[in-house]
Specification:
Largest sheet: 5 strands, mixed
Strand content: 25-35%
Distance between the termini: 22 Å
Strand order of the largest sheet: 14-18-17-16-15
Radius of gyration: 25 Å
Number of helices: 10
Structural class: alpha+beta
Length: 624
């Protein structure tokens, strides 16, 4: 059963029903040797502007999919198709958690689904198994992600590799709860490569047969003839050897090694470093369990940074040309139930902030029912009059161009959609060229994330990249001669500079860790970027000298409708379900469903029955 908001992108409900019923359910049932009984409810949730999903089997089997697609800074950015990836991950939870054999299966009769032993196991096992499934059932996933490669490699090189007992969701140090996903997922990919997938599945079946919760020794001995603790240590040693080998190759592959200086020591998550127009400040956002999310500015000539805005983590910031105001995104609670993004203007003279509001005559076309603009990634043109941003309504992505006006420049006038939403398309990080005639952005489409140029009218001008690499974070040099971006095409995310005069592309960094979100100083002499260490992300600085950087070739791959080519091992499983093709449709249109499905209004009455799908001795209630 699929449940979705009335105005959500209908593609999600149509594709979810087809993929689940016709492909994923039989595919997983055959591989796992287990078929969950009763009904699984799939809920399409459009209450947030961040990407996620969840699954539970108690009191009923429910999968929740967030309609919003992940941005390129989330750690979820490596996928072939977002709906398919999150659906595979969450359905893996349903199958895995629902397994019961032996005494636990007998316990199902008096206790219902509470007698499911895979509910009572460390988070790295539960989440890691779902990451394994999203990986081997596609050409992408976190089991192949260069972002996760970076996290593991850096932890190994800096002697910060976590122990097996640290893979829980509440882990207080970087990468926080993602440790269970990143490390737990890669460990299970490694177990399958060492012992075979059947041995990995045998472990999970054996655990589902053991009536003693959190006792992993016996299932591990049955499946691997070895304890998980010893296997984790063996895997850590292998990751460390590979990390050292990678570091040696990086250091010996080029003589161009520019000096890089770390400017901050926050760690955790940090995003959006950008020079102010006068070159005196660097703006960025931080997020950590210690002091929450904050937007800060750091003096370029040294000194302590200053907190500008609390409770704000903006992926990108933009300045007015005179440097007296900045524009950013802020996640707000709307109407009690929504976490949607708004755009704000912050006055650097008086410290006041104002929400950007759409002019009244355009309100209904651009403002969500929650009252939010659902916008991110703003950029202001050099004329100080035009603003461009990405809007994410109902699971889609579209590019909006508007004029700034009204009191304090906080009214968006004459807004227009210059790049409309389309299935399977995600837009990110639009940036005006210095003369304001072009807009560079990162676009995900058909399994590829590339850098493109558009005119202000929305006409596509040029594909700067077209391949399977993750190409993100475009920005311009102040003179407009270079278009910079980040790409993981050599195994780690590094910075590249594309000359606008048609010359060769230059690789600006060759780091062992990773570099993202470049910003060039107004005088064109230096650049800052979002860099990585085992602590997390910080602001780093280096000289901007593209003419000295080595030349690299970035040939354009042939156009394809969808590219699911694995960029690295492991190879996808044979017989994985085919990805559904993107289907063009008008906004609000509900495509025809399979004849075996029906479309009804939502009611909660049937879920309140005590015998709905399974017997529940301990019914639960949830309050939002």
């Amino acid at each position: 059963m699929i449940r979705r908001p009335p105005r959500s992108t209908p593609l999600y409900s149509s594709a979810a029903s087809d993929v689940y019923k016709r492909q994923l359910f039989p595919y997983m049932s055959q591989r796992y040797g287990w078929e969950p009984d009763g009904r699984t409810t799939i809920i399409i949730n459009d209450q947030t502007d961040f990407a996620n999903g969840s699954a539970t089997i108690v009191p009923n089997k429910v999968v929740t999919l967030y309609a919003t697609q992940p941005t390129e800074t989330s750690g979820l950015e490596d996928y072939d198709d977002w709906l398919f990836a999150v659906l595979v991950h969450e359905l893996a939870h349903i199958f895995h958690l629902d397994m019961a054999y032996g005494l636990p299966w007998i316990g199902r009769f008096p206790l219902g689904k509470y007698a499911s032993m895979n509910l009572y196991t460390p988070a790295w096992i539960v989440e890691g198994f779902a990451v394994y499934e999203e990986t081997v059932s596609s050409g992408a996933g976190r089991g192949r992600s260069s972002y996760v490669d970076m996290a593991l490699r850096t932890a190994a090189l800096e002697d910060r590799f976590p122990g097996i007992d640290q893979g829980y969701r509440g882990f207080a140090d970087w990468p926080f709860g993602n440790l269970a996903y990143f490390f737990g997922g890669r460990f299970q990919v490694w177990l399958a490569s060492k012992f075979g997938e059947e041995a990995l599945l045998h472990y999970h079946r054996a655990y589902a047969s053991d009536p003693i919760p959190y006792f992993t020794y016996l299932p591990a001995e049955i499946a691997f003839d070895q304890s998980l603790e010893s296997l984790w240590n063996e895997w850590e040693a292998e990751v460390t050897r590979e990390a050292r080998s990678f570091a040696d190759k990086v250091r010996t592959s080029t003589t161009y090694q520019p000096s890089v200086t770390r400017l901050t020591n926050y760690g955790g998550d940090l995003s959006g470093p950008r020079y102010s127009p006068d070159g005196k400040w660097i703006l960025f956002s931080t997020d950590s369990p210690k002091d929450g999310s904050r937007m800060r500015r750091l003096p370029v000539k040294g000194g302590e940074d200053e907190v500008l805005v609390d409770d704000t983590f903006s992926k990108a910031v933009a300045f007015s040309p005179d440097g007296r105001a900045l524009y950013f995104q802020q996640t707000e609670i709307n109407q009690r139930y929504y976490l949607h993004n708004s755009l704000l203007r912050f006055d650097l003279d008086d410290g006041g902030a104002a929400r950007l509001e759409i002019e009244k005559k355009s309100h209904d076309d651009f403002v969500a029912p929650s009252g939010s603009l659902r916008a991110r990634d703003p950029d202001v043109a050099s004329d100080g009059f035009s603003i461009v941003f990405v809007q994410a309504p109902y699971g889609g992505n579209r590019l909006i161009l508007a004029n700034l006006g009204g009191k304090g420049g906080a009214t968006l006038r004459s807004p227009k959609v210059i790049v409309p939403a389309a299935p399977d398309v995600q837009l990110s990080s639009p940036r005006f060229s210095p003369d304001g005639t072009l807009i560079a952005l990162s676009r995900f489409q058909g399994g590829r994330r590339d850098i493109l140029l558009y005119e202000r009218s929305g006409k596509q001008v040029e594909e700067i990249t077209r391949d399977r690499a993750l190409d993100v974070d475009p920005t311009w040099s102040p003179d407009g001669k270079w278009l910079l971006f980040a790409s993981d095409r050599d195994g780690a995310s590094n910075l590249y500079a594309h000359p606008m005069d048609g010359g060769p592309v230059r690789q600006l960094t060759k780091l062992v860790t990773g570099a993202f979100q470049p910003s060039v100083s107004p005088d064109g002499k230096s650049l800052v970027f979002r860099g990585y260490s085992a602590d997390g992300f910080d602001v780093y600085q280096m000289a901007f000298e593209p003419e000295k950087a080595p030349i690299v070739s970035l040939p354009l791959a042939d156009p394809v409708a969808r590219d699911a080519t694995p960029r690295r091992l492991p190879a996808p499983n044979k017989g994985i379900p085919a990805l559904p093709p993107p289907v063009a449709q008008a906004a609000g249109e509900v495509p025809a469903l399979d004849p075996t499905w029906t479309l009804d209004d939502y009611t909660s009455a049937d879920t309140l029955l005590p015998f709905h799908d399974n017997w529940n001795l301990f019914p639960t209630a949830a309050v939002n």
